[in-house]
Protein 1
Amino acid sequence: MKQVAMITGASRGIGRAAALAFASAGYDLVLAGRMQGDAAQRQYSLTGADGKPLPGSLGSVAAEARERGARVFCVHLDLLDGASAELAADQALDQAGRVDVLINNAVYQGSDLNASLLDLQVETLQRVSQAYLISPLLLTRRLVGPMAQQGAGVIINVSSGAGESNPPVSAARGGWGYAYGAGKAAVSRLSGVIKAELGHRGIRAYTLNPGVVTTEALEATIGAEGIRALGAGSAPPHVPAAVMLWLCRQDTAGTYQKRTVHAQPFAREQQVVDEWSSPSGG
């Protein structure tokens, strides 16, 4: 039986790249996110310079993954709705029959996420708490029980340097605000708890910091010129996706659970990818 990877936030960026990497490696997929069909304006969604929603949908990624031989199931997931997270997990198990890998990649991207400390509203913190702390917990808890019964499972929590260090400058000057940093800090703590409590039942859990990744969302945030200015300090989405796949398939002893995996230096150290340019068709 083929293994199944469930990827949240799979409509574009790192999630899309992970879906295509796992499909190419022989996994079946459950793709979770809000964008089931063509892009549409949704509350708390990012828009491009033209004011329109960023392109990408679960359906289009599913079509690409099926071309690579994967069975693909799409489920709705709204991180601001805890019931949605639990229902997504139940649908994944019902439709795919099992989940062997869970990649917690989806994020809340409201324009208030990096509000300055003096402007930060309690409502923003409540949304961040729901999206970064509560919903991932509900989804993970629903799936990790069946994984433990299978005797194996991998959970990858996509974090950020913002959750583990102080901003170099204010959010207004290109750093990050308290809400985003606090949200990612919560993500960074989940893997260690899973390892301590469920590692003996075959569950591996990783915290992955992808670094600066040149996604559509990043371009919408800092612009094309900002991305060009990053130069060698960034990587395309297929790099962290390849590291995720490597951890699932190569680190069977769970050696790299002990610390946050920094995807870009890790990819170079382990020679996970041959080169940084986008792979053909990816």
Protein 2
Amino acid sequence: MRIKLNKATKTIETWLNKLAKDQYEPLIKVWSGPKGTRRHFFSGIKSERSHHFLSDGEKRLGLVREAQPQTVSFYEQFPLYDLELCIDLSVEMGIKYPVDEDGQACVLSTDLFCTEVDFETGEIINVARTYKPIASFLTETKHPISITRTLQKLELEKRYYKEKKIPFHIETDLNISKNHADNLVWARKSAEYRNEFAHHAEKFTHEFINVAFCRPDTHINELITLTVRKLGLSYSDGFALFQWGIWTQLIPADLERPIKIFEPLALKELPFKEVA
């Protein structure tokens, strides 16, 4: 069947025209996504706009990447807008390019297109990231044909970004865990009030980490109390500063473990090595 390009070309032209006016719109929005799926709509902190995620995994990916210090911003449902390249690559791979029921070419998209800082060089770079649950690769949960098709699309996406000289990463449940994302959802609530306390962040973080390392079995609630007492801050400011420290990763907490205020804080590493 011959691939029809009219619909896809129009979609891409409309998207590019809005992008040229500095108006980013995801290719697929929550109200137009696949039916029967879990979709999420929430406000971004760094992007200062609303984000559209089409699954729990995509939302976790967005939450985790947003909180990474190197992330400047990100764009979800980012189209692979070089349609000619996509089709050429599918021919090269010997696979069928996705089309709708009318034979119109589909516009493929990447879950997250990130703008990031390379801390080694200071350069601002683009990085494409896509999420797939581990279950989508298992024969226990997916038919072999479905797995093959998933792998083909991922390979097409990988080759596309290789041609564009843009790094491409596949993210899974192994590095985008529910505990990690849940901790960030809880911690990012402080962002709404950050202008009221952010000027205390550096000294609070330094003092809190010192107290936490000296008293590893002390509950978080008491650690906050001890820290604000030394700094002459209110407990409410201290609580918000603790959340901010978790979200910005200034406080090196192990985010793979649930953060509970009336339990000790699991830290990832010591700031120094003990000398023998």
